[in-house]
Amino acid sequence: MELKITLLPGDGIGPEVIAQAVKCLQAVEETFNHQFTYTTALIGAAAIYKTGDPLPDSTIELCKNSDAVLFGAIGAPEFDNNPDAKIRPEDGLFRLRNELGVFANIRPVAVFPTLIKKSPLKEAVLRGTDFVIYRELTSGIYCGEKFLSPDGSYATDLSKYTESEISRITHLAFKAARKRRKKLTLIDKSNVLETSRLWRRVVKRIAESYPDVELECIYLHNAIMQMILNPSRFDVILAANLFGDIISDQASVIGGSIGLLPSASIGTDKAMFEPIHGSYPQAQGKDIANPIAAILSAAMLLQHYGLEEESRAVVSAVNKSFKKNIVTPDINPKSKYGTNNVGDFIASNIVDTDDSLNM
Ligand code: IPM
Ligand code: MN
């Protein structure tokens, strides 16, 4: 298969972890005889420094003309520490998501058996944890109108959703549930928010077309407790943009490190793959960042294009790195292995096929 892949390494540890994902994709090309081409483009703070724009037109153009986008991370302390900055790295990512129309962000959360002791949760609580979050990605409070009064004393963010924005991701989530354990949990705040009430109404109506899937609707504040007390009760989780962002960060620590979780952002046409972690500037250039989330994002890319065996081969190699304890210091503080060692080990072990990402 031929695939045109745009690489957007972005900021902080982004370039380091994307380099490891590319090593793995190249190993897949060799082992399975595919031809992937890679073009790198600017986004985020890196793009602001060079062009003044967090998402230059050339980047949009390139992404639109490729099959898939592999994205690293975005954000830099200089902007985080300055609420008055007019141009922000993150705006590049929001605009790109909208330009590509990738409205569903899919975040699988599975606990790797070899890492069970790394989790802050007890083993008995963790057992059987395997769920996937469907986060709406191109609307909601992230994308509504923002306002700051001229004297700086008053601000608003508009949270808005339309029925069709809710419906398109809801269908994807129900279809995913059908292929899994047939349970869908809508997480909302419908006791307070009008947008949440719209979500509940639309999701309940759509549920009638999926009678084989059990639907439960729970409040966000309850859901985050349940995720710690009884994470195995979840199968497919559906949530609005901001809620999905927050619960997926909580979900990521269940597995032992935020550096492990990948995601796929899909729409009707284009697809983008990105780790759920941020740019972690404190680790930049130190060769300590965990490349697994980026590598598993590449595995999701392969799966999205029907390369199931290839995707499983990547996941198997990742599992092997855990079994052999070839891991970065976030997993084992005494580890002598860095980002590059882990990437090299995984890339050179892309052969077997016994495990899969369950999405
Ligand atoms: C994510 C990130 C982004 C988001 C940030 C970097 C703007 O946290 O992809 O989850 O909030 O969407
Ligand atoms: Mn996030």
From TrEMBL:
Requisite cofactors: Mg(2+); Mn(2+)
Gene Ontology annotations for the cellular component aspect, listed alphabetically: cytosol
UniProtKB keywords: Amino-acid biosynthesis, Branched-chain amino acid biosynthesis, Leucine biosynthesis, Magnesium, Manganese, Metal-binding, NAD, Oxidoreductase
InterPro entries: IsoCit/isopropylmalate_DH_CS, IsoPropMal-DH-like_dom, Isopropylmalate_DH
A GO molecular function held by the record: NAD binding
Phylogenetic placement of the source organism: Bacteria, Pseudomonadati, Bacteroidota, Flavobacteriia, Flavobacteriales
Family according to the record: Belongs to the isocitrate and isopropylmalate dehydrogenases family. LeuB type 1 subfamily.
Pfam families noted in UniProt: Iso_dh
GO biological process: L-leucine biosynthetic process
EC number(s) on file: 1.1.1.85
Organism annotation: Cellulophaga tyrosinoxydans
Domain of life: Bacteria
Subunit structure: Homodimer.
Designated name of the protein: 3-isopropylmalate dehydrogenase
Residue stretches making up the Isopropylmalate dehydrogenase-like domain: 4-346
Cofactor note: Binds 1 Mg(2+) or Mn(2+) ion per subunit.
Entry function: Catalyzes the oxidation of 3-carboxy-2-hydroxy-4-methylpentanoate (3-isopropylmalate) to 3-carboxy-4-methyl-2-oxopentanoate. The product decarboxylates to 4-methyl-2 oxopentanoate.
Pathway listed: Amino-acid biosynthesis; L-leucine biosynthesis; L-leucine from 3-methyl-2-oxobutanoate: step 3/4
Catalytic reactions of this protein: (2R,3S)-3-isopropylmalate + NAD(+) = 4-methyl-2-oxopentanoate + CO2 + NADH
SMART domains xrefs: Iso_dh
